[in-house]
Amino acid sequence: MKVTADPGDFEFDVATTALVIIDMQRDFCEPGGFGETLGNDVSLLRGVIPPLQRVLATARALGMTVVHTREGHVPDLSDCPPAKLHRGSPSLRIGDPGPKGRILVRGEYGHDIVDELTPAPGELVIDKPGKGSFHGTALREELEARGITRLVVTGVTTEVCVHTTVREANDRGYECLVLSDCVGSYFPEFQRVGLAMIAAQGGIFGWVAPSEALLAVLPAPALEGTPS
Ligand code: C5J
After folding, report:
1. Which of 20, 28, 94 to mutate for ligand 1's pocket (most ligand atoms within 8 Å of CB)?
2. Distance, CA of 55 to CA of 20 (rounded, Å)
3. Mean pLDDT of the residues in the chain
């Protein structure tokens, strides 16, 4: 299959491509979490959810490998480098109690994925201590075990965890397609430039396309209640 993308067609097949959904956690997408403690308007990320739901529904119907990631730390914060813990002047720091539980701590309500995109049984959930999805995780081994060579990358935020993951994936030999309307930033300028950087120079890190371009080449999933 070929998706019309920037800087050119992205070729893939369903069996060897994973949908990767990065950090669609309450801590980033809802008030009272990590994103808001840093002074961000979290409502800017909510627009990603509807197109991502459509892509996720299609991926599930086609039996594609689906990977969800979550950024966060173990409760004693032993996997959180002091540099990350003490940086900046957020209203609450990582590990502090907030309205959705301890900020960016595994097992807390705020650390989990938003209701609209709850992982289905059998889907991979990768807990990561850093911005990249490969650093400090078994993601590479999990992908290799499933014969995955290409990634369709979505989630938040475009210029931080999405970018870091695409760069890590690129260095590990994965071909990445980033869906422009399924990734989000708190900063419209970073969204624009972040996407441009991926596809520049002949696709220095990968390809970029809107989700409709991908959905146009995938078989439409059967609608619930529709006779087959
Ligand atoms: C950030 C992320 N922005 N998921 N994390 O700290 O992009």
Report:
1. 28
2. 11
3. 96
| Helices and strands (H and E) in the chain: how many | 8, 10
Exposure string of 120-155, with b = 16+ CB inside 10 Å and e = fewer, is: eeebbebbbbbbbbbeebebbeebeeeebbbbbbbb
Residues 6+ apart with CB under 8 A from 84: 94
Q: 218 CA distance to ligand 1 centroid (A)?
A: 29
Q: Relative to the CA of 161, which ligand 1 atom is closest?
A: 7
Residue with CA nearest ligand 1 atom 4: 161
> Residue 19 pLDDT > 90, yes or no?
yes
CA angle 106, 109, 110 (to 5 degrees): 80
pLDDT category, 139, cuts 50, 70, 90? Answer: very high
pLDDT at 219 (0 to 100)? 85
Of 185, 211, 170, 213, nearest to 54 by C-alpha is 211
Give the pLDDT confidence score for residue 222 in this predicted structure: 63
CA atoms within 13 A on the CB side of 157: 23
Atom number in ligand 1 closest to CA 28: 4
Quick count: other Cβ atoms within 10 Å of Cβ 31? 12
Atom of ligand 1 nearest to the CA of 164: 7
Nearest CA to ligand 1 atom 2: 161
